[in-house]
Write a structure and sequence with these properties.
alpha/beta, Rossmann fold, 7-stranded mixed β-sheet, 7 helices, 7 strands
Length: 225
């Protein structure tokens, strides 16, 4: 019998310096079970296999917590931009309870799921917004001045930076999941960096449990005004 995926996630989390206690693992399990329960009716993800949910999706949220925790305030304001099923934002919140997390999702059915998931988890300081970034509507206080905006599969990196930049606070960061190291000299990315006034701070390599190649969480910071 293979190792329980949650045990494999816990082992990876320890290696990343983000150990998960039993309460956190139970919360992750409950949330992912809710994803599976609602997936057929809401069409949240093509990766409904339990191992994929834990070792692919939840693992990314845990790794984000391990990278951001030492770089941000103790109770940061975080925005998960284009949340989808909430894999990054909700798992990050479960791993880092002090963080104040907002989930922004434009698709109505996914927004309704996120509201239900937020209620089910009972987490405090977890908000859900039904909004498309860059839509031109007036920004609310919940959308501005974040310590970090996080995105995974939102758009190509140059466009993702453009959408995330207006939502940052004065010393805010953007955390973007990537399959390869970003190249700041690549023309489209260089143009976006110049236009948004952000710069690549670090590209953090990691491997999900069981994978043979590195992925990256690229961190960008605002230039000094």
């Amino acid at each position: 019998m293979g190792i329980n995926p949650l045990d494999r996630l816990a082992e990876a989390a320890r290696a990343w310096g983000e150990p998960l206690d039993e309460k956190t693992l139970s919360g992750i399990s409950s949330y992912l079970s809710f994803v599976r329960e609602k997936n057929d009716s809401v069409n949240l993800t093509a990766d409904a296999d339990w191992e994929d949910l834990v070792l692919k999706h939840a693992a990314d949220g845990v790794f984000a917590a391990s990278v951001l925790r030492p770089r941000l305030p103790a109770a940061p304001r975080l925005l998960d931009l284009g949340s989808g099923a909430g894999f990054i934002g909700i798992v990050l919140k479960l791993a880092w309870p002090e963080a104040r997390v907002t989930l922004m999702e434009s698709v109505e059915r996914k927004y309704r799921f996120l509201n239900a998931a937020a209620t089910r988890t009972g987490l405090q300081e977890l908000r859900v917004l039904n909004r498309r970034a860059g839509s031109g509507a007036a920004l609310t206080s919940y959308e501005l001045d974040h310590d970090c905006v996080i995105e995974r599969a939102l758009a190509e990196l140059p466009e993702a930076l453009r959408l995330a930049r207006p939502l940052l606070g004065p010393k805010g960061m953007i955390a973007a999941f990537q399959s390869e190291d970003p190249d700041p000299s690549e023309p489209a990315l260089a143009k976006s960096l110049a236009a948004t006034g952000v710069t690549l701070l670090e590209s953090c390599a990691y491997r999900r449990p069981g994978e043979a190649r590195d992925r990256r969480l690229a961190l960008f910071e605002r230039k000094e005004d």
